[in-house]
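Step 1: inspect the first sequence and its tokens.
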Amino acid sequence: MGDDEVFGTELARNLQRLVKAAAGSAGSGNGNELIDRVTGHLGVPLAQALVVTRNFEDWEHATIQAGVDAYLAEHGVGTDWFGIVGGLRGHEDLVGMLFTAKQHGHYELGAVDYATVAIGPDEAADVVQLGLVGTTAPDGSPVLVGVRGAAPQYGQVNCRLEVIAENRRAATETRDRIEAFMTERDVLRGQVIAFGLSEHRNNELVTFLPRPELSSEDVVLPDGILESIERHTLGIAEYGARLAAAGQHLKRGLLLHGQPGTGKTHTVRYLMGQLPDCTVVILTGSAMRFISKAASLARRLQPSVMVLEDVDLIAEDRDLAHGPTPLLFSLLDAMDGVGGDADVTFLLTTNRASSLEKALADRPGRVDLAVEVPLPDAAGREALLRLYSRDLELTADLAPVVEATDGVTASFMKELLRRASLRALALRPDDPVRVGDPELTEALAEMNDSRSSLTRSLLGSHGRNGPG
């Protein structure tokens, strides 16, 4: 074969290589930088890659980010975070956007979208709202990790974690390792959180609350009552390991009942402050609909406390409510679903103990201790006045006021002192707040006036000075 023939054959081969390379480039997305970034890291065409996903609640977004960050710290970053721009991003998942980019070019490589989310009552963190990052699977093969935050305005109410890899095993092991880090670094653990409703599409919302800081001196109850409550809650928390070793169950249910304004919620707040290492999940009002999710969260983040205020709203006796309600069954299932060995406390409050569903109140393992929080006696009313006047100067003779307030609640006494303080400020705006006999007597007369009957009722007053 002559030199010209050799040259011609080599030229033909080179042309074939160029044609194949051009075809491969077209098949990878027609030169789309987004697809090139993805396939360049994975080392396979997009059509040969697969994805595993896991959906999480919107309020798990910060924990997803914490898990991904920990995984990247362990396995390194092979491709920096990158984002996707163009098209209708709110209506597609990450993989859908990639295939649309490959086929139609509607999406391109762009900057990462970030969002700011709460991680505590006074803390916030930046999280990836839409982005991907290249790293390696536990077996060393290349993978892409994607995070997609919720977009309720487009109907996307969940956060999504996506792992793209050449094979399912690599993707699954990566996802599982990230979830293990999420469990270790859960931002909800040890927090006080309350379920509620967001203003958008009525989807659930978790709010961080500061943990109350109350001492036993801040709780005014008749002798022995607070000690009984502490023994059933704080005592089990302190000796949980030894109780479990002795074969005793840790889950406990405490029901505080009594008239409105007697201090049930105040007592619950005291217990929350005395359990600083516990996760506290609070449900009240319309948020009761999230009882199943809240119980699952409490079980996952134990030691934990579930607070259900005014539980009679969903747990009224079936005979009185003309049949069971779906939320009643959800509550019973939630309490039964938390195993006896789980370090979970159910704190329930109600103003109507007599109307509670018997399956809740009478069955062992659901409510183990029911305690009435009564109206304060004379000693209690004096103690309440002194408690609420700690930050002002109280010079009044308390005996006549204590005698005249028989049958009122703690809330009534607190409001009485507030009104007396306002009168003192009106008289002496430039002086320290000093409450004497005139201010306290006039405030009591105002609250006992016939025009204040609704106020007394709302404060739970059942005293001789006004109707309940």
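Step 2: inspect the second sequence and its tokens, then contrast the two.
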Amino acid sequence: MVAALGYLVDMYDLFLFSVVRVPSLKAIGVTGDALLSDGIFLLNMQMAGMLIGGVFWGVMGDKRGRLSVLFGSILLYSLANIGNGLVNTVGQYALLRFIAGVGLAGELGAGVTLVTEVLPKEIRGYGTTIVATMGVLGAIMAYFVADLFDWRISYFIGGGLGLMLLVLRINVFESAAFVKAKEKSVDRGNLLMLFNNKTRFLKYLQCILIGLPIWFVVGILITFSPEFGQALGLSEPVVAGKAVMLAFTGQVFGDIASGFLSQYLKSRKKVILLFVLLSSVFIAVYLLAPVKDITAFYIICTLLGFANGYWALFVTIAAELFGTNLRATVATTVPNFVRGAVIPLASLFTLFKPSVGTVSSALLVGGLTLTLALVALFYLEETFKKDLDYVEK
């Protein structure tokens, strides 16, 4: 539950920016087309921080322990969150989004690693589902807090919640599997081990690729839903915060459904395949259906969120595929490389947009992510019954 609450605060901050992007930028003097270009710049800075932080916290999790990451990451992003509420220029905003990104990168991987190692293999899927579901509730909470309070106060609330959570973590115990591995003379947290062995590298790459559709939807279709609404000719302007809130409401139910379905079918791969196919259907509906009514558009955003509900399974597979001495490194870097993939995906989207238009550009990029995910999933190992008490050599 402590890991789950940490991820709730993590996701609150991560998606608060999507909710307050337009009002916060307007408040510091950004107008017109710069709202989109500066918004993409800030998003890229946040994601760049998560890429760097993912590597740092992942290595730290295997070298120093899962708990050190849970403490350090939440302290950093809580302070950065408070700083975000004090910005007055785009430059300040960009720097603090980068720092926040570094801090946000450690929470999910360390939490999932700890949960998978503490719980018996028969029920660890339930544990990671709880963590992921609580995180998505944090994204929904960001919408309601931003609706009730000024954007600066919303950032202060996130920082305060994070600092309060540090108190709860005092009595959390370290993973026994990590303590056991620490006593052995094995190389822990060596990032090069993921690249100096072909089998390990391909497993690592497959883990990243199966998560790409999730962040194509979140980072492009939902974050920039106002721009898509305009391109699709909707009857009313889209409120980005509402689209984010509804998408993550859908993801709450998707995460619960995929988690329980995985336990019922005793398979991670079958359920992820189902949700990737669902995602492809709803991406096509979002971009191609002749929908003009704003309510129908919001319903499609909710369904897209539901199809994104394999996030918990995706991170769980990453943790289960590798030994104890690399598990935190993988479980922390993989979701952050997927998040960071928004940078090249957004770049491709903006590259194609002038020549083929907003909708066709999104179709091309979305089709690419879905194809890569399906190919990677086909070759991926099933991990549902895998014993995690081993090390990589």
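Step 3: confirm your contrast with the notes below.
The domain at 2-170+187-379 is CATH 1.20.1250.20 (Growth Hormone; Chain: A;). Residues 323 and 391 are 4 Å apart (CA to CA).
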